[in-house]
Amino acid sequence: MIYLTDRPALAKWLRPDQQRWLTARLEAERAQREAIRHYALAETLLEPRVWLLTLVYFGQNVSGYGFVLFLPQIVSRFGASISQVGFISAIPYVFGAIAMVVWGSGERNKHAAAA
């Protein structure tokens, strides 16, 4: 936290020419973003796409938590012991961990878009 400053002009570990270049670059990026369109909070809340994305996010979280919370109970109904329930419930996460490593190797842009 000592080396990380709020602005490039305050970073003593940058040379003055690096500070000026980085400050100008950040200002240009900010101006480019604001030139596109600046939405106020009320405009954002009236945008249907925001509500659609919120609905998708809510559904994803509800289904994810439902799976995490109720999978052990569902597995235990099949007559498995407590340790068996733990091992059986871990199977999807083991495959998920392997899939993340496999999916992450290769061309990341296409994989992120497909996911």
Spell out the blueprint of helices and strands:
Layout: H1 16-36, H2 41-45, H3 48-76, H4 82-104, H5 108-114
* Residue share in β-strands: under 5%
Helix/strand order, N-terminal first: HHHHH
Q: Share of helix among residues?
A: over 70%
Q: How many β-strands, per DSSP?
A: 0
Low-confidence parts: none
Can you describe what's shown?
By secondary structure, this protein is mostly helical. It has 2 domains: 38 residues; 68 residues. The protein is built from 5 helices and no strands.
What would you say about this model in short?
By secondary structure, this protein is mostly helical.
Keywords:
5 helices; mainly alpha; 115 residues
